[in-house]
């Protein structure tokens, strides 16, 4: 470890600590990375707390007192774990942490050791310059986000809620990064989506019951047949397009900024907009509908025996407030032979964009990119914002990066050759530092 590492070095050194999260199949855990974080912070004069949830699984939490302690606090959270990487197919070894060609390369470079490095560099800068933020800022470096947070954010919420006393809002992954879109007149507008909502993750195990018997005497109450026909009905179902408030706002601002004629009152009109917003489509489309995907089948034990029951698992993603209706539809489609239970139940979350929190994020982005169009959005998947929301903390996806003057962009999240542009990281630090100090 260098004595005074900058944000790029910190990001590279974090990548070189392999924190692959294999879920129940083990992995290295985050303890070494958490110790690295503690080391950097202690060297800067802070007193962070290392919180071990299970052997080798670790979190680091630290509160920096604000100058105005009557203000509600802000949480900034980043996860220390990463998804595993198969080195085959990578140009650069995924856990080397190489800095080359204007990028920091490696697993975690954009999800989200870049943000963790910016958080650390911000803290070290505050210590060196003797500055304090306006309000209390709690920094949480957490374990286990890439599984379900049970040993990270959720564990802290269950066992150490007092760490977040007085905290009203949080920022974490993912948002605050430029998405360029070409308008019909040929100009390029830069959109910065900031997440104000997340679809819910409900993982179902379903059981179809029926009458067991000999395979040579088929009966109409065969649970395997109930299972496949029920799942077929579910799979063929087209979930209706639903404009939740943040998505409506996102589409309004986007069509305005691009000068698009749009009819947002019909599904066809919205589909037509999707074709004209380039890469922003990926931000909008998954939040337009709830979804279901059958992921596990489990039925029968011998070819000449009709079993008494058959099972499947379904990955259900819900829109904010839509859980009850979606589950009722699933029950209707599956039919009366089915019962269900939850493997996990994390309903969707949503907060508001017409708040000083969101305004402060937008202002911070515009100070660095005056042409920025900052828009709220609903994330398709889930993050640690969900467990923190259980404490009443409004979650925003805001892990800002700057622009690379040569057009490099972050890439390879959960894929090969994950990387983050050095210039984006260096500017992102300025943006994050300024936002956290002044919000
Ligand atoms: Zn992540």
TrEMBL record:
PROSITE patterns documented for this protein: ARGE_DAPE_CPG2_1
Stretches assigned to the Peptidase M20 dimerisation domain: 196-327
GO molecular function, one term: metal ion binding
InterPro entries, per the entry: ArgE/DapE_CS, Bact_exopeptidase_dim_dom, Peptidase_M20, Peptidase_M20_dimer, Peptidase_M20A
Cited Pfam families: M20_dimer, Peptidase_M20
Keyword vocabulary terms for this entry: Hydrolase, Metal-binding, Zinc
Segment forming the signal sequence: none
Domain of life: Bacteria
Gene3D superfamilies to which the protein is assigned, alphabetical: 1.10.150.900, 3.30.70.360, Zn peptidases
UniProt cofactor(s): Zn(2+)
NCBIfam families per UniProt: PRK07906.1
Family: Belongs to the peptidase M20A family.
Protein name (record): Acetylornithine deacetylase/Succinyl-diaminopimelate desuccinylase
């Amino acid at each position: 470890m260098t004595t005074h590492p900058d944000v790029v070095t910190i990001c590279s050194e974090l990548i070189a600590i392999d924190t692959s999260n294999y879920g129940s199949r083990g992995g290295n855990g985050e303890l070494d990375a958490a110790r690295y974080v503690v080391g950097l912070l202690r060297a800067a004069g802070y007193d962070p707390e290392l919180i071990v949830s299970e052997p080798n699984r670790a979190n680091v939490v630290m509160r920096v007192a604000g100058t105005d302690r009557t203000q509600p606090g802000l949480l900034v959270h980043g996860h220390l774990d990463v998804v595993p990487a198969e080195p085959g197919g990578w140009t650069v070894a995924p856990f080397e942490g190489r800095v080359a060609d204007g990028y920091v390369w490696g697993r975690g470079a954009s999800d989200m050791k870049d943000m963790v490095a910016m958080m650390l560099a911000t803290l070290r800068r505050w210590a060196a310059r003797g500055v304090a933020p306006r309000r209390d800022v709690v920094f949480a470096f957490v374990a286990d986000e890439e599984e379900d947070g049970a040993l990270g954010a959720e564990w802290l919420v269950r066992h150490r809620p007092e760490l977040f006393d007085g905290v009203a809002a949080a920022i974490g992954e993912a948002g605050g990064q430029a998405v360029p879109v070409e308008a019909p007149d040929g100009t390029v507008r830069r959109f910065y989506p900031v997440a104000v909502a997340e679809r819910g993750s409900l993982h179902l195990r379903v059981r179809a019951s029926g009458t067991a018997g000999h395979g040579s005497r088929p009966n109409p109450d065969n649970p395997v047949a109930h299972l496949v026909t029920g799942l077929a009905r579910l799979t063929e179902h087209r979930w209706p397009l639903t404009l939740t408030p943040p998505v409506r706002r996102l589409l309004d601002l986007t069509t305005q900024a691009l000068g698009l004629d749009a009819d947002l009152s019909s599904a066809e009109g919205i589909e037509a907009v999707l074709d004209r917003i380039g890469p922003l489509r990926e931000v909008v489309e998954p939040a337009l509908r709830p979804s279901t995907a059958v992921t596990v089948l489990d039925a029968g034990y011998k070819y000449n025996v009709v079993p008494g029951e058959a099972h499947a698992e379904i990955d259900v993603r819900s829109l904010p407030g839509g859980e009850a209706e979606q589950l009722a539809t699933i029950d209707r489609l599956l039919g009366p032979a089915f019962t269900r239970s939850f493997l996990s139940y994390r309903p969707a979350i949503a907060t508001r964009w017409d708040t000083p929190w969101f305004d402060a994020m937008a202002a911070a982005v515009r100070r660095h990119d005056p042409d920025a169009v900052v828009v709220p959005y609903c994330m398709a998947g889930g993050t640690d914002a969900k467990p923190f929301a259980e404490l009443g903390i409004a979650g925003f996806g805001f892990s800002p990066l700057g622009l690379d003057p040569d057009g490099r962009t972050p890439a390879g999240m959960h894929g090969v050759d994950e990387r983050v542009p050095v210039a984006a990281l260096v500017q992102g630090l300025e943006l994050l530092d300024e936002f956290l100090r002044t919000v």
